[in-house]
Amino acid sequence: MSENANENPATGPNPSDVLLSKREVAGRLRITVRTVENWQQRGILPFVKVGKIVLFHWPDVLEHLRENFRVCRRTHKK
């Protein structure tokens, strides 16, 4: 299956799935918009700014998070 299920082979990725607003990124990551802004300022989330509009390229966000952060697993002490 394609990485992006909404991708049309003839036209490419659906733009609404690729460039996201702060609110859309917050929803996908299950965090608040304020946390998105904090992470944006700290360089945790890559973004594009055009004038006053801030957009996030979703594939770049996922790649950046995968490359720079890891999942921590709980260890149970017995």
The name of the CATH superfamily of the domain at 16-68 reads: Winged helix-like DNA-binding domain superfamily/Winged helix DNA-binding domain
Query: How large, in whole angstroms, is the Cα Rg?
Result: 15 Å
Low-confidence stretches: none
CATH domain fold name of the domain at 16-68 = Arc Repressor Mutant, subunit A
Give the mean pLDDT.
Answer: 84
Arrangement of strands in the largest sheet: 1-3-2
Helix content: 40-55%
Describe this structure in words.
The chain is α+β, with helices and mostly antiparallel strands and 78 residues long. The protein has a domain at 16-68: Arc Repressor Mutant, subunit A, CATH 1.10.10.10. 42% of the residues lie in helices and 13% in strands. A hairpin with a 2-residue loop joins strand 2 and strand 3. The chain is elongated, with a radius of gyration of 15 Å.
Nutshell version of this structure?
With 78 residues, the chain is of the alpha+beta class. It is 42% helix and 13% strand.
Task: Draw up the topology in text.
Blueprint: H1 15-18, E1 19-20, H2 22-29, H3 33-42, E2 48-50, E3 53-57, H4 58-68
Antiparallel strand pairs: 1-3, 2-3
Helix pairs in contact: 2-3
Main attributes of the structure:
three-stranded antiparallel β-sheet; single chain; 3 strands; 78 residues; 4 helices; alpha+beta; 13% strand; Arc Repressor Mutant, subunit A
